[in-house]
Amino acid sequence: MKYFKVFPHMKTEELLGVLNAQK
Q1: How many helices (H) and strands (E) does the chain have?
Q2: What percent of the chain is helix, strand and coil (3-state, nearest 5)?
Q3: Cα 11 from Cα 9, distance rounded (Å)
Q4: Residue 2 CB contacts under 8 Å (≥ 6 apart), including other chains
Q5: Tens digit of each residue's pLDDT (9 = 90 or more) over 1-23
Q6: DSSP class of residue 10?
Q7: What is the DSSP letter of 8?
């Protein structure tokens, strides 16, 4: 997943927050 490459320092919960914010 590209999100893990772009934000390798973020946690899964933080990634979900970013995805929800982009909707």
Answers
A1: 2, 0
A2: 70, 0, 30
A3: 7
A4: none
A5: 565 566 666 677 887 887 888 77
A6: S
A7: T
15 Cβ contact partners less than 8 Å away, ≥ 6 residues apart? 3, 4, 7
Tokens of 14: 């933080």
Q: Residue 12 has which token pair?
A: 């899964």
Structure tokens at 15: 């990634």
Q: Count CB neighbours of 22 within 10 A.
A: 6
The amino acid sitting at 22 is Q
